[in-house]
Every structure is written in C-alpha cells, then in structure tokens.
C-alpha cells in the first residue's frame, strides 16, 4: 500500500513538472514568438500535453526553442530533434 502511494505521488510530480514545462514552452511559442502553428495558448497546451503522453521530452524542446530565438525554422528543427530522440529511444 505504501508503495502504491509513493508511486502515485511520484507520477503526480512528473505530471505537474510536464504541465509546468508545457506552460513555459507555450508561453515562448505563442506569447513571445507568435508561432503560427498554434493560434491560441490552449491549442499549444493541448498539443504539448499530447506529446508528453506519447513520451516527448518537452524540457529539451523548451531549451531548444528558447535558444532558437523565435526563428521559425530553428523551432521546427527543435520539434524534429526531440521527436527523433524519442523515436531512437533517447
């Protein structure tokens, strides 16, 4: 029983961390860069949460997007790089 409680707590923390990272990522993409792929902040959050459910590392993507400095092509490369890493198991 204690193990189940500990596991639920750890999963909850991971989910909260991912949600916070998604908010930061969407802040950067939608509000800072005006990235046209996401017309609203909510649509960005939905997409980000979907990718998290599929195993995406949005922390790496956030770092890459911040370094891209609102360059659309660099942002697309960030998405591709994190998807490629996930597909390769890394």
Describe what you observe in this structure:
This protein has 90 residues and is mainly α. The protein has one domain. The chain has 4 helices and no strands. Helix 1 (2-32) runs antiparallel to helix 2. The longest helix is centred in the first third of the chain and has 31 residues, at 2-32.
Distance separating the two termini: 32 Å
Task: Look at the structure and give the mean pLDDT.
Answer: 81
Q: How big is the Rg? A: 14 Å
Let me know the largest β-sheet: none
Question: What is the tally of beta strands?
Answer: 0
Task: Output the helix-strand order.
Answer: HHHH
Q: Could you tell me the strand content as a percent range?
A: under 5%
Number of structurally distinct domains: 1
Helix content: over 70%
Number of helices: 4
Which helices and strands occur, and which strands form pairs?
Blueprint: H1 2-32, H2 41-53, H3 58-68, H4 72-87
Helix pairs in contact: 1-2, 1-3, 3-4
Outline:
It is built from four helices and no strands. By secondary structure, it is an all-alpha fold.
Features:
single chain; 90 residues; mainly alpha; 0% strand; disordered N terminus
């Amino acid at each position: 029983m204690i193990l189940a409680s500990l596991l639920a707590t750890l999963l909850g923390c991971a989910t909260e961390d991912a949600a916070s990272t998604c908010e930061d990522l969407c802040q950067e993409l939608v509000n800072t860069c005006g990235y046209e792929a996401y017309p609203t902040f909510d649509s960005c959050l939905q997409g980000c949460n979907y990718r998290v459910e599929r195993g995406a590392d949005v922390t790496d993507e956030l770092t890459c997007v911040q370094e891209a400095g609102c360059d659309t092509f660099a942002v697309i490369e960030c998405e591709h790089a994190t998807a490629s890493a996930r597909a390769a198991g890394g």
